[in-house]
Amino acid sequence: MGRSVAVVVGLVLLTSGLSGATASAGTAAVCGTTVTEYASAPSGAVVVDPAHDSELAQRTSDSPAGTTFWLKPGTHTLGTDAFGQVQPKDGDTYLGAPGAILDGRGVNQAAFTGQAKDVTIRGLTVRGFAAPQDQGVVNHDSGTHWVIEDSTIEDNRGAALMAGDRQEVRRSCLKDNGQYGMNAYRAGDGITGLVLEGNEITGNNTDDWETKSPGCGCSGGVKFWAVNGADVTGNWVHGNHGPGLWADTNDNDFLLRDNVIEDNDAEALSYEISHNLTVSDNVFRRNGLVAGRARAAKDDNFPVATIYLSESGGEPRLGARTHQIDIGGNTFEDNWGGVALWENADRYCNSPANTSTGYCTPFATKTQCTAPGITQKPLYDDCRWKTQNVTVHDNTFTFDPAHLGCTQFCGRMAVLSNYGSYPDWSPYKGDVVQQAITFGQNNHFSDNTYSGPWTFVAHDTSRVLTPEQWQAGPYGQDQGSKF
Fold first, then answer.
1. Nearest-angstrom CA–CA distance, 387 and 312
2. What CATH architecture is 116-471?
């Protein structure tokens, strides 16, 4: 991106098919490492002394745009006001010497705020901030093209990071934050061109938001909302309390490659009412065990997946690098489940069952999506987020129920929907969507390798198939696959 970076911290690249014994360190073992690149102040930098409370905020206010600040070793603070914060100007750069910490002490809500552009933060530890729910500590107001590199953002409430257009996060540790490692949400037009490369994202959602607010959909390592274009490469996403990565509502054009995603309580990847995705050359391990055991204990047979596609599919009418959801060349080891393709028959634009309240597909409006117009094409199609144009191919799926502590409902692949029933004016009642996702929306599994007692759920939760039934008519799935 036009810059040279002298230090790469803890980066161990993996290829697809790598065995579990080899990759326990992950692709990006960043947390706990020390960056020495910024051990001395660059020429012309403003030196910030931790001995003086709020000096960083004051120096930033007093300096012109485009200033470089070098934070000396030690703990820097921002006063006793909840709104004590740093407000960068366009082009400002913040470099942390080894041992430089910006500490909110549980008092300040945010560290770096405002909508300045082209802000850079490198080599800094940011901790102890008390951001409210759904808010973030760094880039609180989603400024454009912030670059966060070689930094540690840990032990905060809320999200470690918010995101803005063209934000780049590299070789950084996003660890043990109360809600998210990053909340990629910006009100209005959303976010474009997001880059996450070589980061370690671990232990987030320490405040257990799904228990505090059941059904909030507000937990995990990273949450994406209305992001158009994201490259998520070479990251180690592990041990998050909830999903590892969760793209929710009108995301488009995502690339996930060369990541290790493991030991997350729920899905490794949840891709929900979104479009156009490539998932390749990743390693997925031991994801969904907490969620799977909880569902099994309640005798709930809905498939718990490693990759969960919920009303998401390939859409050629949107600009993207692919016009399908392509899941290929990945290794899956001892996860609770495999890949699940789901479409809620009652969830569509303007339906009371759509939990993304106020949002519609890119091709219709809430006003349009009502009876009688919704009963006819094109609105009949354009008011739905469809799980369509999905290919799952050339992956390796391995699991042993004994490793998972599983006695029922694990080791499942799925293509299914529910019986449409709500609201009264819905044109999607009955098995219309069940038939469509199973047989009519170009969803195909092929050329995969399976090891373990896998079963396959098709059409609805009651229809559980053996590999032979899954491959035979009328399903015809997993042609060329090995069991």
1. 5
2. 3 Solenoid (2.160)
Neighbours of 406 (CB within 10 A): 18
Give the distance, in angstroms, between the CA of residue 254 and the centroid of all CA atoms in the same chain.
Answer: 10
Q: How many CB atoms lie within 10 A of CB 149?
A: 23
114: left (phi over 0), alpha (psi -120 to 50) or beta: left
- The pTM assigned to this predicted structure is 0.93
Question: Is pLDDT at 8 greater than 80 in this prediction?
Answer: no
Residue 197, both tokens: 């490369």
Q: Over 60: is that where the pLDDT of 86 sits?
A: yes
Contact 306, 284 (CB under 8 A): yes
For the chain, what percentages of helix, strand and coil (3-state, to nearest 5) are there? 10, 30, 60
* Mean pLDDT confidence for 450-457: 98
Residue 423, amino acid:
P
Residues 6+ apart with CB under 8 A from 334: 20, 285, 286, 398, 399, 400, 403, 404
For the chain, give every domain's residue range. Answer: 116-471
- Beta-carbon contacts of residue 415 (< 8 Å; ≥ 6 apart): 340, 341, 437, 438, 443, 457, 458, 459, 477
Q: Which tokens in the block code for residue 185?
A: 């949400």
Cβ count near 212 (within 10 Å): 11
Specify whether the CB–CB gap between 454 and 483 falls below 8 A.
Answer: yes
Determine the pLDDT at residue 214.
84
**What pLDDT does residue 215 have?**
81
Residue 22's pLDDT band (cuts 50, 70, 90)? very low
Cα–Cα dist 326/432, whole Å: 25
240 half-sphere exposure, CB direction, 13 A CA radius = 38
Report yes or no: 234 and 211 within 8 Å, Cβ to Cβ.
no
Cα–Cα distance, 168 to 120 (Å, whole number): 9
**Strands in 113-251 per DSSP E:** 120-122, 125-127, 136-138, 147-149, 152-154, 159-162, 168-170, 173-175, 180-184, 191-197, 200-202, 220-224, 227-233, 236-238, 245-248
Distance CA 137, CA 130 (A): 8
Q: What is the Cα–Cα distance from 241 to 31, expressed in whole angstroms? A: 17
Over residues 313-324, the pLDDT tens digits come to 999 999 999 999
Tell me the pLDDT band of 216, cut-offs 50, 70 and 90: confident
16: closest CA among 398, 234, 280, 325?
280
